[in-house]
Amino acid sequence: ALEQDPKELTRLLEELRAADIAELLEDLVDQQDEMPSVLSLLEHLPLTRRAHVYGFLPGWLQARLVDQLSDEALLAILEEMSSDDRADLYNLLGEDRREALLRRMAHREREELKRLASYEEGTAGAVMTSNYVAIPSGLTASQALLRVRQTAPDAETVYQIYIVDEQGHLAGTLSLRQLLIARPSAYLDELMIKDVIHTQVETLQEEVARLVARYDLLAVPVVDENELLVGIVTHDDVIDVIQAEATEDIHKGASVGNLEDGVSRSPLWNLYRKRVAWLVLLVFGNLFSGAGIAYFEDIIAAQVALVFFLPLLIDSGGNAGAQASTLTVRGLATGDIAFKDWGKLLGRELLIAAALGMTMALAVSPIGFMRGGEMLMIVVAMSMTIIVLTGSLVGLCLPFVLDRLGWDPATASGPLVTTLIDSFGVIIYFGIATILLTNI
Amino acid sequence: ALEQDPKELTRLLEELRAADIAELLEDLVDQQDEMPSVLSLLEHLPLTRRAHVYGFLPGWLQARLVDQLSDEALLAILEEMSSDDRADLYNLLGEDRREALLRRMAHREREELKRLASYEEGTAGAVMTSNYVAIPSGLTASQALLRVRQTAPDAETVYQIYIVDEQGHLAGTLSLRQLLIARPSAYLDELMIKDVIHTQVETLQEEVARLVARYDLLAVPVVDENELLVGIVTHDDVIDVIQAEATEDIHKGASVGNLEDGVSRSPLWNLYRKRVAWLVLLVFGNLFSGAGIAYFEDIIAAQVALVFFLPLLIDSGGNAGAQASTLTVRGLATGDIAFKDWGKLLGRELLIAAALGMTMALAVSPIGFMRGGEMLMIVVAMSMTIIVLTGSLVGLCLPFVLDRLGWDPATASGPLVTTLIDSFGVIIYFGIATILLTNI
Asked: Which residue segments constitute the domains of chain A, with CATH numbers given?
């Protein structure tokens, strides 16, 4: 109905925020497959706003939409987008399309786009924008303020100003707040902070996020290999990075590979692929437990009641180990603990795990007694204590070991820890059982 | 040595950033127990800077430090702190200390501090600051700019300006950027955005963070139950909230209770307490697996080789289930999926889990054949497929079920899913074995 009344539609769209329009469009495509309506809705938006909405759309939808656009229409949108969104969209295009677009661009824009699009995903270069306010160092505060007013409409943020020398090196920074309260005739050189917190284009995005979080920054400037200022990473992009990194770590913690599109949009094949590798690997890891069981088959056959406690004991070790590894991995990720704290943490874990193991041994003892008398109770309680202790220590150490091997500590996931500890648990439990029960 | 040379020390401290000084002090206390040095270092800092450093210190250290200060010295620091940090520190004090401090304060400050300190932890009220720029709506752009310059030194951010009516209701907002490029004689009423994204004092902090992330805001205004503007939550506090919420979810995912101080600082007793509750609960959950095993004791005694595959099969179900629950919980937390998507997700999971189960059945079949011939191979392959399928579906559904019960979906952790699926796995595996192997 709305499509019959373009005026009403335009009025409605004006009242919505870009992020909300983007979500509306996403729902239209995703739940009702209304691609034509989406395209016509977008055409109702003025160009600047349309480009802004594009910036809020997920990559998969951007890619589908621009397939329907002429090079000219796409170029118009690209030109209105912020430089980081533009580079992201450009990277979604096929080789031919890219060539066609670049040919239509002015030399300067072309080079800038190619440069921004060339940085590796997950680095400062890939998340930064080149729409920042850079001001030559020779100016006064009032001259600088005039410059800020002129660049205000195009810059991603005008609230942090970067001062550059003649070659373009980052020389200092000044907040707009400081500029506003400064004496108008004061020179930037005297006002600016010279020791600027900055980062390199190839720095990992999570480290950039950590800088911004640690120093409560609005944006952090990015320099290239020649120390030339080439961009800034702003607080809103940092929030996205922190969200994405947490999601990646949480997925890794359950042995799921990194999903770029989120669970709701990932193609089924992709989800399968990201899950199956670890699952199959862990199946083979579990063969060690099987081998342990095969080795102790005689005692199991003689005392089938022992099997009753098998899942309980090995799971308890796995759970305690998963707790320890998760606490360690997250502590390392947030900077709460460092690799050098290893020894201190081990000492603490030893105490906690011993207390946990004994508590759980107490909890399980009455059941051991009921199922098989005093001796079985002792076997189960001893096994529980040692398995929980071992599990916790393995869980604590694994992230450090993986890091030494050059892997991401987050690979020390619950499933991996569980599988490892299962085989220890089998050996500890049936080993103790063999010693204590066959002597009777 | 530095302490003997106060001038050199002062110079060094001037070069450091507040966040770095705070970390230095934390290390001094934590690793070398150098409380007296820390106190004297702090005394070397000018008051404003000292208050700023306090804001970066963790709660436990703030509490220890202020124990050593006179009421007067503490009051001086409190007055220089930003209003949200002040309320946090105030909440760390004992009842007597609070009373003593309040008595020394002017009426207005006292009421404001009491109000800010009264909001429940984890709500917008508890993270907001009252140092914002509010301007009456009748002014022109140039008058407003003058006001901004005057309040700039005290406000947490001056880059988003809030316009209030005579009663103090939030009437509109304007960015400093818009104010700078506006015609100086234009009235704020014409310039301002009237439909302001805002939140309530009692809104949960994670929802506030979601607003800021979604609309790329610099700050979000907070209103009380009478729609009066009472504070703002700024981007840097939002980053802290997002980090803390991710940590909480990650810990919950491994069945660890919420740790306020981080793993490195939590007292041992606290860490024990946060871990033991779930571990013991899960021991009792595991009794269902034990009961299943007891029920099938005859077939186990007859075919001890079956035990070989027990850890492998139940673990595989648990791992697949942990993947499914983790993907669901995180998707719900980030808003990537919603509770209404339940049916669609179930359909997708059914397909993926069937494919995963069959792949893993294929992987494990040769081992089944080697250990016990064709029939055991069939039992193991069938069990694997059904257990992985069941595990995945349980993992997917559990967060939704918990939410329905009024629990946090994040409680659907790896350990809980594993324990649940273990008992299903035992029944599925030995059930299939009983049917297929006792007929021979």
From this structure: 2-118 (1.25.60.10), 134-250 (3.10.580.10), 268-437 (1.10.357.20)
B280/A152: higher pLDDT:
B280
ipTM of the complex model: 0.88
Measure Cα distances from B242 to B35, B54, B211 in Å: 32, 22, 12
A415 within 8 A of A254, measured Cβ to Cβ: yes
- CA A321 centroid distance within chain: 23
Question: How far is residue B196 from each of residues A21, B211, B223, B229, measured CA to CA in Å?
Answer: 17, 12, 11, 12
Q: Stretch A296-301: mean pLDDT, rounded? A: 89
Q: Which of A432-436, B15-19, B30-34, B66-70 has the lowest mean pLDDT?
A: B30-34
Query: Cβ–Cβ of A242/B247 closer than 8 Å?
Result: no
Outline where DSSP puts E strands in A88-159.
134-136
Q: Would the pLDDT of B5 be above 80?
A: no
> Across residues A132-137, what is the average pLDDT?
92
| Cβ of residue A180 closer than 8 Å to a chain B Cβ | yes
Alpha carbon distance B268, A5 (integer Å): 67
Kindly report, residue by residue over B123-179, the tens digit of the pLDDT. Answer: 999 999 998 999 998 999 999 999 998 887 788 888 999 999 999 999 999 999 999
β-pairing, B199-200 vs B219-223, is: parallel
H or E segment at B135?
strand B134-136
Q: Which of residues 297-356 of A touch B (CB under 8 A)?
A: 297, 300-301, 304-305, 307-312, 314-316, 318-320, 322-323, 325-331, 334, 336-337, 341, 345, 348, 351-352, 355-356
- The SS3 call for residue B396 is helix
What number of other Cβ atoms are within 10 A of residue A43's Cβ? 10
